[in-house]
Specification:
- The protein has 663 residues and is mainly alpha-helical.
- 66% of the residues lie in helices and 1% in strands.
- The chain has a two-stranded parallel ribbon.
- The radius of gyration is 35 Å and the shape is elongated.
- The two termini are 60 Å apart.
Length: 663
């Protein structure tokens, strides 16, 4: 048996060696064939060979051995072949930096070509190579391209300056490239302006003390004028820059808002979100309440339009809308219906819509929302049904006038006898009892009828809490708690803790009838339970009951504060930080970019006055951005625009995991 196993292993190893040898031979044969084709005297065959090389490179095959053969084909007027070869060079430049020098003459020659597309392609490729060996050869062509007669070449050269600065900042400064890009901010072509802004902002992010990008009112006006003719990506760059600019006066802030508003009608959702970011930021500097209200209303249609996009775009829009509503809940307070879930919405979209609907819920629209949530609670997806039931409980706690209707809906759901529906409903009703003590005890008999359906730890804990809290009004409370005692040692710690507390409450109400039960529970908890929390609490109860029963009654049966709901579930400073990154990945994650990006430098836009004050400071003062408007005035306007809710301050408030829809 051992011999046959050894023979099998040897045959397997031999087969693997043969296969690897065949694959290696095939690869060598393929590379040999490609090398032969690349050196063919026929142009069509060389072109086809270059395409095959790029195809192999794209799927991850190593074709770096053909570097010199590919370089030989750079001398061509065929723009398609030139693009493919330049792509090949970018991919393998770092692994063959010494061979890239062989292509320098062709690059320099192409920057003098009569075709602006070839000139731009050459300077862009040289910037993308990121090899120190070619930096000295890049400076002269780059200087010419920054002054090229073609705007396409100039805008490409502007981005190349940012790439060069990342590799060799000293060379960039010494050759005056930053000053040349700054001059492009006055270019007649809006595409050149937008690329110049992009390059300078990138340089400023890497070196804030460089003061590469200084904004002043005339420059802001130029950027706003360029918005109408820029590409969508250029518009995003300019809007992002303007959002970081501090206006010198309220009149300037109002003027900027008026010129940004047309961007709300753009077909690109990212442009729309960037425009909204500017408006939200500038609300802090607008003194006219009527204008602020008017601008807020103009944000509604574009946000609603985003919800008709593809599901993936909808999700991004919904995550951003969630942040916007926390700052300005009045923007969509009449548009709840657009967030109703469709039958073909993916679950991730439904969850976000549900979170926004409960945020928009108020005294005027809760009827429509509850009717919709009741429908959701009858769907087939278990997780979505649970979230819908939680949302019903959230509405009951948030809006007192809606609590009666919410209870009736929850009782209807209990009557369905669907296991997971019953489980979640009991948990939600427990929270409603905490919000409205002594109001809805009449539903307890209905809850007791569902005792056989309870099997989840959270539901058991909620049900036991209800029994313990209302023990004086439940005649057979001791029998119900006895039923849970049968598997006490097998229960989760949270169930054990609630059961122990409920038994103690029952004992304090009926000491003569339940003395044996409480002793048995405390003995099991202290001697047989594995959970240290359960044992510790049992010792506490045992000692306080044995030393001072009246003190135990005052502590255990004390009136508890009612729970409350806080819609502002993100801290104000975090919310403002995320709104500054609206339309980015940070606004989708609901986490600042500094938490998941290694290099996350916030765009530093310096005003002219701030630059002057910085230069007058000692060298150790660091980077300063001095807003012309006083921070106090801005803070007062911000408070007037949208007063934030108070942050959670005590245990009486609802736990986000219990009632709020998970973001």
């Amino acid at each position: 048996m051992a011999m046959s196993s050894s023979v099998a292993n040897q045959l397997s190893n031999f087969g693997q060696k043969v296969r690897s040898h065949i694959v290696s031979a095939l690869r060598k044969g393929e590379n040999f064939e490609l090398r032969s084709e690349l050196n063919s005297e026929y142009r069509d065959r060389r072109k086809e060979a270059v395409k095959r090389v790029i195809a192999n490179m794209t799927v991850g095959k190593d074709v770096s051995g053909l570097f010199t053969d590919v370089l030989k084909n750079m001398h061509t007027d065929d723009l398609e072949i030139k693009k493919l070869i330049y792509l090949y060079l970018i991919n393998y430049a770092k692994t063959n930096p010494e061979l890239v020098i062989l292509a320098i003459n062709t690059f320099v020659k192409d920057t003098d070509d009569s075709n602006p597309l070839i000139r731009a392609l050459a300077i862009r490729t040289m910037g993308c190579l990121r090899v120190t060996e070619i930096i000295d050869y890049l400076c002269d062509p780059l200087r010419k391209c920054l002054q090229d007669e073609s705007p396409y070449v100039r805008k490409t050269a502007a981005i190349c300056v940012a790439k060069l600065y990342d590799v060799a900042p000293d060379v960039t400064v010494e050759n005056g490239f930053i000053e040349q890009v700054q001059e492009l901010l006055s270019d007649a072509n809006p595409m050149v302006i937008s690329n110049a802004v992009t390059a300078l902002v990138e340089i400023n992010d890497n070196s804030p003390n460089q003061d590469a990008f200084v904004l002043n009112p005339p420059l802001v006006n130029k950027l706003l004028a360029a918005l109408n003719e820029c590409t969508e990506w250029g518009q995003i760059t300019i809007l992002e820059t303007i959002s970081q600019y501090v206006p010198a006066s309220t009149r300037e802030a109002e003027s900027v808002c008026e010129r940004v508003v047309p961007r709300l009608q753009h077909i690109n959702g990212s442009v729309v979100l960037s425009a909204i970011k500017v408006l939200l930021k500038y609300f802090n500097f607008v003194d006219n309440p009527d204008m602020e209200t008017q601008l807020a209303r103009k944000m509604t249609p574009p946000l609603v339009t985003l919800l008709s996009s593809a599901p993936e775009v909808q999700y991004v829009a919904l995550r951003n809308i969630n942040l916007i509503l926390q700052k300005r809940p009045d923007i969509l307070n009449r548009e709840m219906r657009v967030f109703f879930c469709k039958y073909n919405d993916p679950l991730y979209v439904k969850y976000e819509k549900l979170a926004i609907m409960v945020r928009l819920c108020n005294d005027k629209n809760y009827d429509h929302l509850l009717a919709e949530l009741k429908e959701y609670a009858n769907e087939v997806d278990v997780d979505f049904v649970r979230k819908a039931i939680k949302a019903i409980g959230y509405c009951a706690i948030k809006i007192p006038s809606a609590s009666e209707k919410c209870i009736n809906i929850l009782l209807d759901l209990l009557a369905t006898r669907v296991n997971y529906v019953v489980q979640e409903t009991i948990v939600v009703i427990k929270d409603i009892f905490r919000r409205y003590p002594n109001h809805y005890e009449g539903v307890i008999p209905t809850l007791c009828k569902s005792l056989d359906s309870i099997d989840e730890p959270e539901t058991k804990a909620a049900f036991v809490w209800i029994i313990g809290e209302y023990a004086p009004r439940i005649e057979n409370a001791d029998e119900i708690l006895e039923a849970f005692m049968e598997n006490f040692k097998m229960e989760e710690p949270q169930v054990q803790l609630q059961l122990m507390t409920a038994v103690v409450k029952l004992f304090l109400h009926r000491p003569a009838e339940t003395q044996e039960l409480v002793l048995r529970v405390l003995k099991v908890c202290t001697e047989e339970c594995d959970s240290p929390d359960t044992r510790d609490r049992a010792y506490i109860y045992w000692r306080i009951l044995s030393t001072d029963p009246q003190a135990a009654k005052a502590i255990v049966l004390a009136d508890k504060p009612t729970i409350a709901v806080n819609d502002q579930n993100l801290p104000d400073n975090l919310l403002d930080e995320l709104l500054d990154e609206l339309g980015t990945l940070a606004s989708v994650y609901h986490k600042p970019s500094r938490m998941f990006v290694t290099h996350s430098a916030k765009t530093a836009v310096v005003s002219a006055s701030a630059l002057a004050s910085r230069r007058n400071k000692p060298s150790g003062s660091g980077s300063v951005t001095s807003p012309p408007l006083s921070p106090t005035a801005a803070s007062q306007r911000r408070t007037t625009a949208a007063a934030p809710s108070q942050p959670p301050s005590g245990p009486s408030e609802v736990d986000n995991e219990d009632l709020l829809i998970a973001l």
